[in-house]
């Protein structure tokens, strides 16, 4: 049944929008001097959908401790090698020793949660496969902080605790793996520590996975288990190579602004890779996408925009550079198995990798140190990365879920646009907002509050702009945007 159309809040008209667009376009043409930063999504101007951090979130971010992150990275390095094929029963060396230590730490965090967090091993035997010459037990460490209001809604953050050197099959040489990826594991563990004592509305999973360097095996197992159980994973972040703020030439991205305050507090950049065309898209979904132009509006892109909305601000000390790719050029990470299962997922990686300090034997050549050693990590930078993750995850878990079944009605051809959606079940749901942007814009530029309704008509043509819908709760927290599909 078509929903009853409520009394419409004030919306822009076609004439006012066209006039404003023309004026803005004329100004751009007249100046013709936009800088790369102004043209990119790393501009200092926040999106129209930006959400400033709440007092609760700021208090959480202040608890993230660079010293504890450093201690975690150095402890993981101390196991010598964490190669997936290394020994699993030595108490001091190899991936098994690292596994047991991570589990012990996660259980210690869980003990502070009042029963809300559990920590467990998630294991399976991988039969011989590429980079797995013999049957090998692969084990993830998974800590789950159960939500107090909508526990069925789940968000995941992970890093991989396995490591490697130049030869991906060398399971015995020292393989410190400080940046790749003790840094990402340290992020997930620090978030578990800080959030264990809190009560998120939705469920958050903190994971350290194995088998990444051999072929994303641990993450694939975890994603498949979630899918088989019908788990509603609404967002997943992997942190992989997030340990260094300096590029191989010694520069930082972006450099601190000269003469503007303490350079140690100046915003730095973290990359966030988010796919456009969904990995798991069906032929029918592809046909719909082509017909409406949704290449830049996948669930993962909406998740990435949400990270910008909530985490690109002074509270984190970071600029989030969203990169419109699934991962780095022809490379991959642990978010990809989640994408393959149809979940929204994205990857955090430092702004510019130093390849002398990853996937390298530890050695000195011509006076240059090679190897993924902790002295090349920037622990305050990793703490900033953790704050970005925390800002996004905590807001996701406290805000309503993204609207479901958002549609644009297309039975009648008109120059206005009517959107419909299902009302969420959250007890603190306050209403919805319709957002829109020009088809050439990368961020949502306009927000229309529409109230606690399930439909709204905007006096703008769906031919000319993109629309979305997001939910709002009584505290003013907003969900990620849902990109609507056509409904005949």
What does this structure look like?
This protein is α/β, with parallel strands linked by helices. 29% of the residues lie in helices and 23% in strands. The protein is globular, with a radius of gyration of 23 Å. The chain starts with 13 loop residues before the first helix and ends with a strand.
Strand order of the largest sheet: 1-2-4-3-5-8-6-7
Number of strands: 17
Backbone shape? globular
Instruction: Calculate Rg over CA atoms.
Output: 23 Å
Give the ordered list of helices and strands: HHHHHEEEHEHHEEHHEHEEEHEEEEEEE
End-to-end separation in angstroms reads 13 Å
Write the layout of secondary structure elements.
Elements: H1 14-31, H2 36-39, H3 55-62, H4 66-77, H5 95-110, E1 117-126, E2 136-145, E3 150-160, H6 178-195, E4 202-209, H7 212-215, H8 217-228, E5 232-239, E6 268-273, H9 283-292, H10 299-311, E7 318-323, H11 336-340, E8 345-349, E9 363-365, E10 368-370, H12 379-398, E11 404-409, E12 417-422, E13 429-438, E14 446-451, E15 455-458, E16 465-473, E17 485-487
Parallel strand pairs: 3-4, 3-5, 5-8, 6-7, 11-17
Antiparallel strand pairs: 1-2, 2-4, 6-8, 9-10, 11-12, 12-15, 13-14, 13-16
Helix pairs in contact: 4-6, 4-12, 5-6, 6-12, 10-12
């Amino acid at each position: 049944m078509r929903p009853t159309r409520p009394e419409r809040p004030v919306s822009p008209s076609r004439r006012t929008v066209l006039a404003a667009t023309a004026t803005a376009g004329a100004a751009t043409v007249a100046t013709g001097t936009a800088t790369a930063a102004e043209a990119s999504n790393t501009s200092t101007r926040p999106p129209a959908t930006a959400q400033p951090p709440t007092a609760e979130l700021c208090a959480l971010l202040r608890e993230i401790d660079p010293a504890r992150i450093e201690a975690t990275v150095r402890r993981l390095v101390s196991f010598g090698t964490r190669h997936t094929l290394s020994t699993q029963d030595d108490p001091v060396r190899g991936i098994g020793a690292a596994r047991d230590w991570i589990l012990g730490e996660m259980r210690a965090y869980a003990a502070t949660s009042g029963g809300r967090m559990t920590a467990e091993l998630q294991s399976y035997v991988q039969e011989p496969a590429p980079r797995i010459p013999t049957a090998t037990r692969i084990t993830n460490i998974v800590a789950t902080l159960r939500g107090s209001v909508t526990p069925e809604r789940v968000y995941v953050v992970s890093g991989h605790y396995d490591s490697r050197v130049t030869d991906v099959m060398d399971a015995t040489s020292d393989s410190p793996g400080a940046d790749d990826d003790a840094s990402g594991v340290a992020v997930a563990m620090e978030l578990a520590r800080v959030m264990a004592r809190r009560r998120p509305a939705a469920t958050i999973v903190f994971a350290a996975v194995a088998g990444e360097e051999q072929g994303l095996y641990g993450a694939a197992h975890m994603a498949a288990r979630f899918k088989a159980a019908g788990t509603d994973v609404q967002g997943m972040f992997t942190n992989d190579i997030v340990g260094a703020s300096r590029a191989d030439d010694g520069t930082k991205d972006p450099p601190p602004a000269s003469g503007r305050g303490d350079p140690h507090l100046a915003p730095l950049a973290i990359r966030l890779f988010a796919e456009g065309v969904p990995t798991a898209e069906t032929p029918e979904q592809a046909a719909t996408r082509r017909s409406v132009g949704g290449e830049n509006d996948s669930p993962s892109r909406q998740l990435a925009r949400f990270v910008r909305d909530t985490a690109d601000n002074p509270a984190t000390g970071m600029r989030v550079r969203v990169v419109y790719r699934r991962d780095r050029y022809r490379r991959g990470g642990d978010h990809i198995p989640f994408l393959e299962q149809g979940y929204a997922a994205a990857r955090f990686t430092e702004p510019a990798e130093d390849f002398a300090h990853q996937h390298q034997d530890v050695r000195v050549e011509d006076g240059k140190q090679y190897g993924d050693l902790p002295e090349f990590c920037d622990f305050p930078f990793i703490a900033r990365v953790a704050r970005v993750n925390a800002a996004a995850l905590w807001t996701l878990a406290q805000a309503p879920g993204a609207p479901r079944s958002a549609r644009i009605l297309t039975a009648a051809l008109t120059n206005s646009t009517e959107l419909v959606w299902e009302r969420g079940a959250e007890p603190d749901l306050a209403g919805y907002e319709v957002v829109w942007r020009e088809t050439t814009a990368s961020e949502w530029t306009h927000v229309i509050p529409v109230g606690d309704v399930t439909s709204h008509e905007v006096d703008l043509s769906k031919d000319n702009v993109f629309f979305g819908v997001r939910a709002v709760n009584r505290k003013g927290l907003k969900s990620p945007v849902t990109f609507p599909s056509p409904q005949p």
